[in-house]
Design brief:
Elements: H1 2-7, E1 13-17, E2 25-31, H2 35-47, E3 50-60, E4 63-72, H3 82-99, H4 109-112, H5 122-125, E5 129-134, E6 140-147, H6 152-162, E7 166-175, E8 178-186, H7 194-209
Antiparallel strand pairs: 1-2, 1-7, 2-4, 3-4, 5-6, 6-8, 7-8
Length: 218
């Protein structure tokens, strides 16, 4: 019975897409099928100062897949602030875990929200993969797959900015214990050279591998 129950524990997935709609940020959720979670998620987005323009809901194998098109309530534009994007992600995950606390062991945020620590220590067990490829003459696509944790998005954007590379847009994909993020980046309005791409990969790899400490980073 316990094996059957574990098979039905939903995998929390939150995807924030900045590229598919030029005028709005798209938030896609894939989780359990409880209506209350959907209603509370919409309220949580509004409480963050966001407007849900439209949404679609489909159910497949008892998993609800929801897509919201959201803009800033005051601006009517897509969300560009990385700090707000991170708050959107964490707010949604926190809300969903209220309805499915049994999923906390499959999500890195479970420990962060004080629900239950993951079965595996994510920083040790999940490999980091970083790739850069050209995406036209004026920008490159940076793909990062690594162990998820609160603040990861902001920290990675800071590392990228510290070497004077511009982040034009980001797609933030949280899949259980793993963060799978994509960034459109450029250097002085052009795609990254091979040498600068290698510098970027090296900097991110160093940052993501280093042990966490209680001291402030400089």
């Amino acid at each position: 019975k316990s094996d059957q129950e574990s098979d039905h524990v939903p995998m929390p997935i939150v995807l924030i897409d900045q590229d598919s709609d030029p005028d709005a940020t798209i938030v896609q959720l894939s989780f359990g099928d409880r209506l209350g979670a959907l209603i509370d998620t919409m309220k949580a987005l509004k409480d963050l100062g966001l407007d849900v323009l439209k949404g679609t809901v489909t159910t497949e194998n008892s998993v609800t897949k929801t897509k919201f098109h959201i803009t800033g309530l005051g601006t009517g534009r897509k969300v560009e602030d990385p700090d707000l994007l991170e708050r959107i992600r964490l707010t949604i995950i926190n809300n969903l875990l209220m309805y499915h606390p049994e999923s906390s062991e499959r999500l890195a945020m479970g420990e962060a929200f004080g629900i239950k620590a993951p079965e595996k220590k994510v920083d040790v067990d999940i490999a980091t993969h970083i790739h850069v490829k050209e995406d036209g003459p004026r920008r490159s696509l940076l793909s990062v797959e690594t162990a998820d944790r609160p603040g990861l998005l902001l920290e990675m954007i800071k590392v990228i900015s510290d070497i004077n590379i511009s982040v034009e847009s980001a797609e933030i994909d949280t899949e259980g214990l793993v963060a799978k993020d994509k960034f459109h980046v450029s250097y002085r309005g052009a795609a990254l050279s091979s040498s600068l791409s290698q510098v970027l990969v090296n900097c991110l790899r160093y940052f993501l591998r280093r042990p966490e400490t209680d001291e402030d980073s400089y």
